[in-house]
Amino acid sequence: MIRDITCIACPVGCEMRVEDTENGYLITGYTCARGKEYALQEITDPRRILTSTIAVEGGILPVLPVKTDKGIPKDMIFKCMEEINKIKVKAPISSGDIVLENVLNTGANVVATRNIPSRK
Amino acid sequence: MEYDCIVIGGGPAGLAAAIEAKDNGADKTCIIERDRELGGILNQCIHNGFGLHEFKEELTGPEYAYRFIEEVLKRDIDVYLNTMVMDISKDKEVVALGDRGLMNFKAKSIVLAMGCRERTAGAIGVKGFRPSGVYNAGMAQRLINMEGYLVGKEVVIYGSGDIGLIMARRMTLEGAKVKAVVEIMPHSSGLNRNIHQCLNDFDIPLLLSHKVAEIHGKNRVEGVTIAEVDNKFNEIEGTREYISCDTLLLSVGLIPENELSQKAEVSLDPRTKGAFVDSNMQTEIPGIFSCGNVLHVHDIVDFVTRESRIAGKNAARFARGELNNKKYVDVYPGDKLIYVLPQKIALDDENGALICFRSRKIYRNPIVKIYTEDKVLKEKKYKIIVPSEMIQIPLKNDVIKNINGSIRVDIEGEEND
């Protein structure tokens, strides 16, 4: 099996190739260690950082941007979105606050990515 | 009010410039920002991928902005929010309108960091009425990510710039159906990784060499007609196709917002649509500096930060009376480049220059060469150079200090689509 993968580890976006050989995966086309690591991850267990927004009450903005603090399995993106969409928080919120622990047992927490002070 | 340095705009460029100006001796520094908070466009860019160069980690837009906002708050830098600069003169007088009414400022140096705005439907001449449901991608991004409105349910995106690609994923995650991303060029103008993680991950088709020929619907968008184009961008007969949708997002380019620069009589380069600057980011008006997207449109915020630090540092040097360059050479783009910045380099300055350019076409395994007359001053190999990615190459002062003639930057290598 041969698969071509575009690296998403940085803006360069190297075109890599992964070949399934008798001696394991043969990865070519990467230009850094992060790229090689990404290619192996992508072929064995593809993951993505998920970013979205959740509702916030009493804040200067009606929505709070959040992210998963590590990659979640790619095929769970929409299931995790459903969980994220259920969350509602109250201001004030600080960047880094955990708003949902271990979403769907992925091992990733959903965390706030900005401060939302209370509305005066 | 009198300042050593006034920074106009509190986005990533203004933040980096203000911090650097303050740290280099512009004791009285302020930022004037028209929005309700600092951070600029980063506040609505909630996706990750920022800061790999700067912080060696991947941050979201708001996180990247906050690292700099924190640094501004730590320092004694005045911040005027909800304040719109109305006028700047070449004598560095600034008139602004804010919640305290009309304010008059006088500065020893000014950093222009107003960013850019999006090209609109009018700029690309699409046929049809003006129904609701046509948004610039960045506007839609702000509505969704900061105001909490989903702008539509069935979406076509015109233009494959990064904001368009990011929005394709964002709207898909929020439950909208993105039917296609339509791009008139034979290649995307967005980053490769965004095509992969925003389109391919969600099976969103990217239609290259296609245009939106018509927008249907009078009160609300009902659909668009797309068509294939030839290599001169003329419609190929018989290729029209109707796609029903309630929303059309436009991601068709950004324009540096230079109205204020022009009031200060700063001259603009038609290629970048930003100011002519020297290697210290100084415009042709002494003491007025320019950086970030108002100077030329960037694709990576880390590059904006790097460039804006140069502007901030030199604005402080100017305010202290320590920027007195006299010996300059011009910098020209070779045939294979769309533009090169800075347009001139101060030779009698120990800081050297940060060369920035964009290529016209795609080149595989090219060498970038920086020449003076026929002599190569510096060369650098790349795996690939594409028009959608700006290249930055630092040029140290010891490489250039003894040259006389002008500098030319070009790419050596085969074109490749």
UniProtKB/TrEMBL annotation, chain A:
It comes from the Bacteria. InterPro entries: CPE0013-like_sf (IPR036593), DUF1667 (IPR012460). Gene3D superfamilies: CPE0013-like. Pfam families: DUF1667. This is DUF1667 domain-containing protein. It comes from Soehngenia longivitae. The lineage of its organism: Bacteria, Bacillati, Bacillota, Tissierellia, Tissierellales.
UniProtKB/TrEMBL annotation, chain B:
Residues 3-295 form the FAD/NAD(P)-binding domain. SUPFAM superfamilies: FAD/NAD(P)-binding domain (SSF51905). GO terms for molecular function: oxidoreductase activity. Keywords: Oxidoreductase. Gene3D superfamilies: FAD/NAD(P)-binding domain. Coiled coil: none annotated. It holds the Pfam family Pyr_redox_2. PANTHER family: ANAEROBIC GLYCEROL-3-PHOSPHATE DEHYDROGENASE SUBUNIT B (PTHR42949:SF3). This is FAD-binding protein. It comes from Soehngenia longivitae. The lineage of its organism: Bacteria, Bacillati, Bacillota, Tissierellia, Tissierellales.
